[in-house]
Each structure stands twice: as C-alpha cells, then as structure tokens.
Amino acid sequence: MAPLPIPAGTEPQGSEPPRAAPAAHVVPLTALTRRAASTPATLELWAGVQLPGLVPADALQRLARRALHYTPRVSLEPPDGLLLEVQGSLHLFAGVAGLRRFLTEECRRLGVASVLAFAPTPLAALALARAGRPHAVLDAAQLVGQLAALPLTTLRWPEDVLGRLGRCGVRTIGAALRLPRGGFARRFGTAQLATLDALTGRSRDLRTAFRARVRFRRRHELLFELENHQAILAALAPLIAELGAFLTERQCSLLELECRLEHRHAPPTCCVLRLAAPLADAQHLAALLAERLEKLSLAEPVRGCELRTAALVPQRPDSLQLWQPGEHGGSLSSEASGLIERLRARLGEEAIHGLMLLEGHRPEKAWGKTAPPADTGGRPAPRGRTARRLPPASRRPLWLLPAPRSLTVRDGLPRRRGPLRLIGEPERIETGWWDGEEIARDYYIAADSHGVLLWVFRERQAPHGWYLHGVFG
C-alpha cells in the first residue's frame, strides 16, 4: 500500500529535507492564452454546407431534416447555409470522408448543389464553404493559417464595413486578424470583432438548434375499392396501430386527427377528428374515428386512405388532482373530456359548444358560445379578455328563457299560477342605447305559490308590462 501523504509543515523532526523539484518547463503567457482559447474548438468539429446558386424556399428545411439523421446538432444559416456539429458522429460514418460522401448524396437527392467544409468552429466551416474550398481542418493550430487567405466577403459583414476596410487595404481575414484589437473595435464595431473571435475559436459561438416538427402521415393504397363501413375501418386499423406506436415512441399526444378517403373521380373525403384533451390511446382514437366515419356519406367507393396529425403535444401521465373538477381551478376530468369527444363524434362539431361571459349588462347579451373547454393538465384555465366578475348567485339565474315571456297582471302585480310574491329590492338595468336595442327594466326575484323562484322584470316605459325572464334552480 502506498504511504499516506504528509501535509506540508508536519514533517517529523530530524527527517531528511525534501529534494529540490526539477525545473519546470516555462510556457510563455501568450502560448497559454492561445492554448486556452483553442481548447473549446478542439472539442468540436463542424461541417458547413453551402448551397450555391438559386436555392428553393424549402430546400434548406428539407436538408436540415435529413441532416438530423447524422447529428442532433443542426443549425440553419439562411438563406443558403447549414451547420452540423459532427465530432461524435465521425466513428459512425467512416470519418470525415464518409460523412462528406453521405451529406453530398443527401444534397444530390434533394436536387441542390453543395460545397462542404469541416473546421473546429462553425463560422470557420461556413466561411470555407462559402469560399468554395471543401477543406477539412481538423487541427485547431492550423485554423488561422487556412482562413488567412479567405476574402472578408465570406463573413457577410455589412457593405459599409467591407468598403471602409477595403479602402484601408484590408480585404482578407488574415489582414483583419493582424489589426490591433482596440483600434479595430473603435473603427469598425465590436460586433465584427466578436465575429473574428468566434471565427478563430477565441470565444464560443452558440448556435440555435434546428428542431423538426414532429408529425404523423401514413397512406395506404387499396388493391380494390371499398364501399362498406366496416371494410373501411379494417383498412384504417393498421394505420391507427402505427399511429399509436408512433405516439408511444415519442411520448406525444395529439389534439387533431385528419382522415382522408380517396376516390377514383370525386375529390377526397376529409374527416377531421378534434379532441377535447390530448390523447395517445390508439383504441380510443379508433372508436371515435368509427363514430365519425359512420356519419359520412361517400360520393364514390374508397380507393385509398390516409391519416394525418396536426402538431403534437408532449404527453402528460394521468394523475389525481387535489381539487375536484371545477373547484378552485381544478381541471376537467378524463370522463368529461371523453364525453365531449363522443358527443362531437355522434352529433357533429357544431352541436357541442361551451359558454363564455361577455362584457354586457343585458342578460341576453351577457354570454356567448365558444368551443368546449379543453383539458389544461391541472393548470387553471386562463381568463379571456372578455371575462368579467360573476354577479351574485342570488341575483342572476343560470336558466334564462330564449325570450322573455309576458305575464298577466292583477292589481299591478304579476301572476303565474297565482299571484307572485316579490322578494328584495329591484335591480335596474338601462343600457343598449348605442346599438338600437335599448332596454329599461326593473328586475325582481319572485316566488310563486309552489315556492319556485323566478326572475321577472317590469318595463319602465309604458305600458309597464311584466315579463318572466329566468328560473332559479
């Protein structure tokens, strides 16, 4: 066993003095600075892809999605550049040469020309590719030498900055790097100096990662035409099972599913299934889709079918809430969401709606229809801009008649199954003069002979009629 080290200053008396350490190798401070500055660059290797010429609008996005097969770190440089950090992918694709071959083949498949360059910093790789030099600079010590001869136009600085540098005789990256840093920053801006630092690895160059939108789209061509509802569902079953596996693998849920049924001559029949809460259960999706398809009338037999999803949302596992649904911001229960979805599938989208409060004092104009409330995953639903404070429950009933119903009057008091007994003070509402639907009413809470509470009002203008407008529960 190796002896324990003795702390300094605790050597035993009479022990032999320690021998002098060998002379250390002295490294100049400038060399240490250069080594520290180049350390981040040596840990990364970036591939810069330049698409010369006229590039289609979606070519860069499609190439970025293909590039995600080789590395998760992909960054867009619109309108014609792409960056990939490939240090961890080299051993998977036979090194730089193999990776260059794969990326060039991907560009060829998309029908675009490309120039690829590799360097320890992203901006250096992009500058080499823009200059048309498909080099692979693997050693950070050689980076400045490879960049020195490149024109400053590869950095795409503003035209006025390039013009002023050109009048000073500075037209290459090497000439710009030889200028004093302080004077360069004062004359041409700190942004350009920061670009040079990122180019040579003196500072980190953080790039925004590209994230492809995750969607599901599968198509099934049929060998023969289908007319039966059950046969169409059987043809869709493999697609729904594949959709369930797709959502499980990515831990995602969907809120909207589109089913397209194709015909020989007629346009495709579209069936859109909108959900009240995020869902990833394939069996539940199949049941809801069957309900919707049963209500469709097809123009022609079906020759093909396709499933498409809108944007997916992260899947949240079910958990019990502290508050019951509707209490203190408690979310909707899964039973409520399932009921809304089944009613939509059977009755149609327009038959199911929610209610929202509007800014208005007239009872018939104080509410409106909206989409059914969606599951918020346990978070309180946000209050809309049109929401307002509810009146006291004792003053306004939840059940309003479609239109006020006239009441008979005897001795100046309203009657309904006998005389009505007015309770409390009236609530006066005078409003609506700006839109031609002006009202002037005094509302009362009234009780009939059976103890039912009613909401009645008396018009303030002649002939001062009495009307029933609502019933309290």
Q: Can you walk me through this structure?
A:
The protein has 473 residues and is α+β, with helices and mostly antiparallel strands. The chain folds into three domains: 39-200, Alpha-Beta Plaits (2-Layer Sandwich); 217-314, DNA polymerase, Y-family, little finger domain (Dna Ligase, domain 1, 2-Layer Sandwich); 399-471, no CATH class. 28% of the residues lie in helices and 25% in strands. The chain has helices at 29-42, 59-67, 95-109, 122-130, 143-147, 159-167, 173-177, 181-188, 190-200, 229-250, 282-294, 334-347; strands spanning 46-50, 74-77, 81-85, 115-119, 217-226, 252-262, 269-279, 302-309, 313-314, 354-357, 367-370, 399-406, 408-410, 413-415, 421-431, 439-447, 453-459, 466-471. The strands form five sheets. Strands 5, 6, 7, 8 and 9 form a five-stranded antiparallel β-sheet that branches. A hairpin with a 5-residue loop joins strand 16 (439-447) and strand 17. Helix 10 runs antiparallel to helix 11. The chain is elongated. Mean pLDDT is 81; it is low at 1-41 and 375-394.
